[in-house]
């Protein structure tokens, strides 16, 4: 029948490989979206979709749409709100009318094996997701949802990255009119974008967690300044094992040494932990700086500090790229969720590495692994469960000594690559392959290089010495508690169920605090001892002096 013929043709079209489909499905949409008349049409369709679904927050079987474009727009909006991209999979025509529509998650299906073997450079985006929406044309001329699958087999994009989804990369009708009005008023495009970003919460005017400290001389002139925001402090908690520090940059009007503390995140990108402007490079200034830095980081000390070796990094920070770098990290996180790197060989070791490592680190690991076939491992000794091998490249005399402890699954190589790079070297991987070890030993998977490196954990905000925090001033206790609950709010706001859970637990905790306060009052334990009062007052005065210094200005060096 004609229906079966149409169906077979569509199935054949749907089997196009991912690389071929990327031209017809993705690039074509981007080209169309650049046309003004298409944008205006989509605005009207979007309004219709919103009007038809204004009484219902979610899509479900039985809902109807006035046209195929309205159905497509509604599903794109649904995908944008829930954290996934949408693709048109199939349309069935009968007598020049579209009678069947199928919209799917962009991760539906799998990349097809090409007839001609070639090396893929593009990451894999499809993983066989079954989420979809199917609509049939009704006698009324409207399209009705007859099949709807809301569940996905992959992680959905979280709130901070949802604006990167293709369906969310368009401005609304009101925003476009707002931009037109600004243009007619002579406001530049850059200023208009910044203004609209502030209106929707894209930029923060203030930072309640911003930390800064200033050192004054006897004339109340500022000598040294240090600052760090909450994002910098959070990044240090995650990636502060290695810190690069340098003071060779004097690109400011005061000709002061600029001292950035920088590191590397799990995407191999530069992150800023804090920065300072110093009056001079004396021992006293450095002592104040490092004590202040550790104080801002809750006393956590780095394992390694590199100095005078990170000129490129620090110079890049000087050139005001902090926001750009953080945006690049966000994009890297987004791409990591939506794509998977291509394995050069289907082996368990690489599959395991792809599961745990970020794409950038996996690429480095894979480069080490793919060459082990060109290396030879010769066993030179054995003592109980400890094996010693000499690993060399074919035809090259140079050898690397590798020790493998089978009992503890530990391995050491003389090249020391794991010590300075954090991934196993080709020599160690050759020995593991020889010993039939098919997965990376957990000891050699550093959390800082994994996909879960930035999975928020409240343990990062636990004080190592909570008793000391309790004994401090009210202001410091308040800051300590705020820091913990701010992180709870960050996690809870990501999903409605998490929000409800946090809200319920917070109300219970508040009730518990009120009951505890009543007990303290009842037992006359509410007011602290006089000595404690004096101590608190002194601490608060000292804290006020530190946080709000009566600075007269910045001290300048004599010419």
TrEMBL record:
Source taxon at top rank: Eukaryota
One BP annotation, GO: regulation of DNA-templated transcription
Cellular component GO terms held in the UniProt record: nucleus
SWIM-type domain span: 400-436
Positions of the UniProt region annotated as Disordered: 1-32, 531-559
PROSITE patterns registered for this protein in UniProt: ZF_SWIM
GO molecular function, one term: zinc ion binding
Keyword match Zinc: yes
Sequence similarity: Belongs to the FHY3/FAR1 family.
Function, in words: Putative transcription activator involved in regulating light control of development.
PANTHER family membership: PROTEIN FAR1-RELATED SEQUENCE, PROTEIN FAR1-RELATED SEQUENCE 10-RELATED
Name of the molecule in the record: Protein FAR1-RELATED SEQUENCE
Organism from which the protein derives: Arabidopsis thaliana x Arabidopsis arenosa
């Amino acid at each position: 029948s004609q229906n079966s013929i149409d169906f077979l043709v569509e199935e054949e079209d749907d089997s196009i490989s991912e690389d071929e489909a990327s031209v017809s499905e993705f690039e074509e949409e981007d080209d169309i979206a650049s046309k003004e008349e298409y944008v205006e049409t989509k605005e009207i369709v979007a309004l219709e979709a919103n009007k038809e679904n204004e009484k219902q927050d979610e899509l479900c079987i039985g809902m109807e749409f006035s046209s195929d474009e309205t159905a497509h727009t509604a599903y794109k909006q649904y995908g944008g709100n829930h954290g996934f991209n949408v693709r048109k999979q199939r349309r069935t025509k009968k007598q020049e009318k579209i009678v069947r529509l199928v919209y799917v998650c962009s991760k539906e299906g799998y990349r097809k094996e090409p007839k001609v073997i070639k090396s893929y450079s593009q990451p894999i985006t499809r993983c066989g997701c079954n989420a979809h929406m199917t609509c049939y044309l009704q006698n009324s001329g409207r399209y009705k949802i007859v099949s709807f699958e809301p569940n996905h087999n992959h992680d959905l994009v979280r709130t901070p990255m949802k604006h990167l989804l293709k369906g969310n990369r368009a401005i609304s009708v009101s925003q476009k009119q707002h931009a037109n009005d600004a243009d007619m008023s002579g406001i530049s495009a850059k200023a208009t974008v910044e203004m609209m970003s502030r209106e929707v919460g894209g930029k923060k005017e203030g930072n309640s967690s911003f930390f800064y400290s200033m050192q004054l001389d006897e004339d109340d002139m500022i000598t040294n300044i240090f600052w760090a925001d909450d994002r910098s402090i959070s990044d240090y908690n995650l990636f502060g094992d290695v810190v690069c520090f340098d003071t060779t940059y004097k690109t400011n009007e005061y000709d002061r040494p600029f001292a950035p503390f920088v590191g590397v995140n799990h995407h191999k990108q530069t992150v800023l932990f804090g920065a300072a402007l110093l009056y001079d490079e004396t021992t006293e200034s450095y002592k104040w700086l490092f004590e202040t830095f550790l104080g801002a980081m809750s006393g956590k000390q780095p394992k390694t500090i590199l100095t005078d070796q990170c000129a490129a990094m620090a110079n890049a920070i000087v050139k005001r790229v902090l926001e750009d770098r953080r945006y690049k990290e966000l994009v890297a996180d987004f791409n990591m969720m939506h794509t998977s790197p291509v394995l050069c060989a289907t082996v368990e070791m690489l599959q395991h590495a792809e599961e745990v490592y970020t794409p950038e680190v996996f690429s480095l690991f894979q480069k080490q692994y793919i060459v082990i076939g060109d290396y030879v491992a010769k066993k030179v000794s054995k003592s109980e469960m400890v094996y010693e091998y000499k690993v060399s490249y074919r035809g090259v005399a140079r050898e690397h000594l590798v020790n493998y402890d089978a009992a503890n699954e530990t391995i050491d190589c003389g090249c020391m690559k794991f010590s300075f790079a954090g991934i196993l070297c080709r020599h160690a991987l050759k020995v593991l392959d020889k010993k039939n070890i098919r997965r990376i030993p957990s000891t050699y998977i550093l959390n800082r290089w994994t996909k879960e490196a930035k999975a928020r954990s409240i343990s990062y905000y636990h004080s190592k010495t909570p008793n000391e925090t309790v004994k401090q001033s009210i202001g410091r206790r308040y800051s300590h508690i705020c820091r913990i609950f701010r992180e709870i709010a960050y996690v809870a706001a990501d999903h409605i169920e998490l929000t409800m859970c946090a809200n319920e637990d917070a109300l219970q905790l508040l009730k518990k605090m009120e009951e505890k306060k009543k007990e303290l009052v009842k037992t006359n334990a509410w007011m602290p001892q006089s000595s404690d009062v004096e101590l608190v007052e002194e601490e608060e005065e000292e804290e006020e002096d530190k946080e709000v210094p009566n600075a007269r200005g910045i001290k300048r060096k004599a010419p």
